[in-house]
Each structure stands twice: as C-alpha cells, then as structure tokens.
Amino acid sequence: MTDQSPQAQVESARKAFEQEFERFSHFTGDPSTFATIDLETAVGAERALAELRTRHLGKKSALAATKKLIGRVAPEERAGFGQLVQATEGKLVELLDQAEQNLKTHIEAARTARESIDVTMPGRRPRSGHRHPITLLRERLEDVFVALGYAIEDDREIETDFYNFDALNIPENHPARAWQDTFYTTQGFALRSQTSTVQIHAMQRRGVPVRMIAPGRVFRRDTPDPTHNPMFFQVEGLCVDRGITMAHLKGTVAEFLRRMFGADTVTRFRPSYFPFTEPSAEFDFSCFKCKGSGCRICKNSGWIELGGSGMVHPNVLRAVGVDPQEFSGFAFGLGIDRMCALMYELDDIRLLFENDVRFLEKFG
Amino acid sequence: MFISYEWLKELTDTKLTPAELRERLTMVGLAIDAVEEHNGDAVLDVEVPSNRPDCLSHVGVAREVSVIEKGQLRLPASEPPKAEGRTADLTSVEIKDPDLCPRYAARLVRGVKIGPSPDWLVKRLETIGQRPINNVADITNYVLHELGQPLHAFDFEKLGGRRIVVRRANAGEKLKTLDGVERTLTNDMLVIADGEKAVALAGIMGGEESEISNQTKDVLIESAYFDPHSVRLTARQLGMDTEASRRFERGADPEGVLRAQERCIELICELAGGVATEDAVDV
After folding, report:
1. Residues B48 and B160 grouped into a single domain
2. How many CB atoms lie within 10 A of CB B3?
3. pLDDT tens digits, residue range B14-31?
4. Are A323 and A176 members of one domain?
5. Residues B270 and B154 in one domain
6. What is the pLDDT of residues A306-317, one digit of tens each?
7. Which of A184, A198, B70, B248 is the most exposed place for a label (fewest CB within 10 A)?
8. pLDDT at A252
9. Domain that holds residue B216
10. Pairing label, strands B93-95, B164-168
C-alpha cells in the first residue's frame, strides 16, 4: 500500500468503499424498491451502514490516511491532490447519507405500522365448548335421584357372561340371550348389554341395603336406524332393603317422572317380562307435549313409553349372596338417548352420537 | 303376531271393540302395537312376551280375553272324522332321542284330494298374513294359529319304509327343506326321519321331498312336543325362524298334542275327504 502513489491510494480507498457499499446501493434509489424489507432487516442494514461509514471515513480509515500523504505529493500537484481527496470524501459521504436517510424513513414507517392499533377493530372472543345433551340429561337424572337418597355407580363396560347374564337370571339357552344380541371380544368377554351389571357389582361391593343408579354406556348388536344404535346410554336404578314392595317402585318412578316433567305427570305401569325381575312392568308417562290429547310425540296415545322395571328376581339376589327371604328390592331402567330424543323432539337418535359440532352447540 | 278380531270373536264372545281390546290387552301385559283394518276385519299386532307362550295362538289370546271380560272360552269344534283302521297297523314311530322329543303322535288320513282351500280358510290365513298353499298344508297352518300347536303333514308314500324315526342327525347329513335350501346338519340337531333318511327338521321345517303335492293320496299328520333348547339351538345354527320354531322355542303345550291333531284330522276329512285312522300312535 505504501508503494502506491498518493493518488492511487485515494483511488483504491474509493474502490474499496464502493465494493462494500455495493449491496446497499439500492437504498440510494427509489424507496419503493426496498419498501418490502422488514423491520429487522432494515435495522440491520442501518447498523451495517454506520459501521461502513466508520471504517471508510473514520479517523483510522484508509481515506483519512491518504490526507496525511499530502507531504509526499509534488508541490505543484498538492492543490489538485487536496481537491481529489475532498471530492472523493464528499462523494462517499453523499452516498452514505442518502442511503441512511432513506433507510431511516423506511424504518420509522415500519415501526409505526407495527405498533399502531386499530381501535375500531372488534375484540377477539374465546370460543367456548358445549356440553353434550346426554351429559346434561344424565346430570339432571342424577340430581333427581341423589335428592332421593341414591348413590351413583358405574363399573366396567366389558363384562364376563356371569355379570351380563348368569347373575341376572339369564341362564344358557334362555331366549333372552338371543334378543339381547351381544357383542363379544375375541377373548370371549361381552360388551355389557345393560347397566344391570353395575347393580350386581354394586351389591357385591356395598352389600345391602343399597340404593343406587347406574348411568352408563351399553352395547347391543343392532343395525343403526332412527331409534337404534349399537352403542347407547342407559340408566338403571336399584333399591334393595328389608320390606321393599312394588308400591315403593311405583312411588319412586312416579316421583322421578314428576320431577322431570312436571307435577301433573301421571305414570302408568303395564305388565311385561324381564328375566331379572318378577313381576316385571313397563312404565309410561302422560305426554308432556299434548298432556294426553294426542300428538306426534306420543303417537296419539297420550302416553309415552319410557322404560322397564320390576321387583328384583330372588335368583338375582341369591347370585350376590343376599337372602331373598330377608331382603327384597325393585329395579328400573330406561334409555337416556331415547329420553333425550323425546325431550328435545329429535327425529334420529344417531344425531346424539355423530358429534357434529353444529348439533352440539345448540345445547348448554 | 297377528290376531284376527273376527276369528277371536268366534272363540270368545267379546263385547269389546278392537280399540278397546287393544287397551285392555296392553294393560294386562299383551302389548298391542297396532290395529289395522283388513277386508272388514280388524287385525291386532300383538307383542307376546317370551314368558307367555300360551298366548301364541288365537285360542291363547281368546283365553286372556275371556278372563278379562269374565266371559266364556269356546274351543273350536268340528265333526268327528270318518275313521277306519288303526294307525299302528299301518306305520310305526320310533323315538331314538327322547330327551329332545318327549312326545310324538302320528295319525293317518288316506285317500285325500289335494286342492285349493275353501274361501273362508283362505281369507282367515290371508288376514293374518299367511300364504295359502293347498288344503292340507293350509289346515296344518290354520290349526297352528288357532291352537298354538305346530303340526306337519307328510306325504305318506314318500316316507321310506312308511315309518317315522325321531333321531339326532348324523354329522354332515343333508336335508333339503321345503324352502328349497339344502342344509348340512350336525349331530346335535334333531330330525324327523323315515326308514332311510332325514325328512324334516324337527319343530322347524319339513323337507321338500315329502311335502304335500297335488298327487298326494295318503297323509301322515305329525303332532309332537320338542325340547325348546334344542329347537332354538338348531334354528339359530341354521339361521332359521319359522312359526313352528318360535312356538317350540318358547315352550309348546305337551298336553295339546292330541287335541290339535284331532282338530287337524277333522278339518282334513271335512275339506279334503279321506278316511282317518281311528287313533294315533302316541309315543
């Protein structure tokens, strides 16, 4: 470097600057060419330019060093040399200034844009979920029975034949094993076809006297249609104690229906048959919609069928080690989804299992 | 199960209208889903719970109605048939598996004329949703719906050795039932056989070969009691469900065997001619 003539050194200082400034040269042009640069990049460029300025125009820069070389220039060329240095310096400063100015403007604009808030925009509302209508109904049912002194029980959904059939007085070859076509796993376990299984478990666990309801999922081999689904929900109740009679059953069911559908609800019982109760009955209640005058819900009969019930069969009590001579009990059961479809006038209970948010968000 | 109101009225002089019957029967445990009008008659669709097999017939329901109304039950009666000869002289019944068939009665009517059934019979069957075939077959069907006892009529000529053997099937034994399906049997299924081969699925469906045809002259009427579990298992294994199997599965009346057979024979002689044997072989 020191062997070059002073003029050449000025020239090389200028060239070195231009080389490094090359990538910033667009900042000296039309601002629209760099309008898309983001804030972070722009700030980085600003810093780089400042650093460039120091390196090429500062006290320790090559250009500054050339000023001291005036002594080495021939006296008659000194004025010209001085002007060369001035002009070069001026040009560099001008370029840097322009670039920095444009960049600064851009940065300010970007910062403003980023930090500004449109106070006329609507607020953001967090979306809330919805509880499933079956859950809502189950909770209502639970409330009614807890108020009557009942405990809530559940147990496993996959059962052995003992709990699903034998303990419920349904021996092998009994026709009931057919009409409740059951799902079996490859290991021979049954998916429970009624929550009466929970009653058996509860009696084994708690002993008697006992008063409980068991809401839960049950499974039956049914083709899905508007009133059937292979998986659905039941709630079954059980009350075993000394001196329990069918009058207690009728009173409990009637009270439960009054609490659900209104104080003027009438209940009726019809003889029926279940293997695990004797005598057995099905219960209906007066239609909540038409109050008996006849409508679509009650198929013009004025009555809505809801569930089955009966006095617990002595064989069932014996199966859990309870002496039917000392204890007696009643049991009842109904389909929660069916009740739900009735109350909300749904045409197809499958709506309750498809989990379509558009349906679910209509509830609580 | 369909019950004809007019038919019911013959068996018990009910004062209740079909609509009233629907209400009253439902309240005693025989739920009636619907009442439909059919050709001037009312048809009740009765849901009989599985612990009431006695109600799986018109007489059964009539019995219930007469209890509800404190009325009288009038059992059907027909002319005693022209009779000649003893069944035991003409055929025999051997029950090899009495655990599955505790009672089997066979009786013959010879010289029948097969033809279409009279109008009243056709109308009765059609009202309750049954298909008329020929007079003898229809009569067995009629008595099933009247008394609840399933019966079967065999073409006597077609029975090898002209005798009946009630036995378990041989493993792999084949039988073509009268719905045209060839079935492969297992050795826990009960069949009605003749001296050579299986001719019917006991309590479920008869075989095609021995079914009544227009050429049939001599008829053997079977009236029996079959073990409910066995009938149920066999029917399920073969995917079958017939009016007969349904009644045997729930528990038929062992004491009704002879009365139903008598009624059937009487009607055959009346409508298809022929001479019955005087008594039945009842094992």
Report:
1. no
2. 28
3. 899 999 999 999 999 999
4. yes
5. yes
6. 999 999 999 999
7. B70
8. 97
9. 87-282
10. parallel
Share of residues in chain A with pLDDT > 90 (%): 45
Q: Is the pTM of this model over 0.90?
A: no
Per-residue model confidence as pLDDT tens digits over B45-64: 999 998 899 999 999 999 99
Query: Measured in whole angstroms, how far is the alpha carbon of residue A208 from the centre of its chain?
Result: 41
* Cβ–Cβ below 8 Å for B232 and A176: no
Together in a domain, A185 and A297: yes
User: SS3 helix, strand, coil % of chain B, rounded to 5?
Assistant: 35, 25, 40
Q: Please tell me which of A59-68, A327-336, B89-98 the model is most confident about, judged by mean pLDDT.
A: A327-336
Q: Does B81 fall in a domain?
A: no
Among A56, A80, A115, the domain-final residue is A115
Instruction: CATH number of the domain at A13, please.
Output: 1.20.58
CA distance A169 to A141: 27
B23, B50, B99, best to mutate vs chain A, most A CBs in 10 Å: B50
Residue A175, pLDDT above cutoff 70: no
Task: Read off the tokens for A42.
Answer: 């722009």
| pLDDT of B239 higher than 60 | yes
Q: Do A172 and A246 sit in the same domain of this protein?
A: yes
Specify whether A229 is located in the same domain as A340. Answer: yes
Residues B187 and B125 in one domain: yes
Best residue in B51, B67, B99, B241 for a mutation probing chain A (most A CBs within 10 Å):
B51
**Single-letter amino acid, residue B276:** A
Q: In which domain, by residue range, is A23 found? A: 6-115
Query: What is the rounded end-to-end Cα distance, in angstroms, of chain B?
Result: 31
Chain B closest-CA separation from residue A340 CA (Å): 23
Question: Do the interacting molecules here have an ipTM over 0.85?
Answer: no
Q: What angle do CA A47, A48, A53 make, to 5 degrees?
A: 100
Domain count, chain A: 2
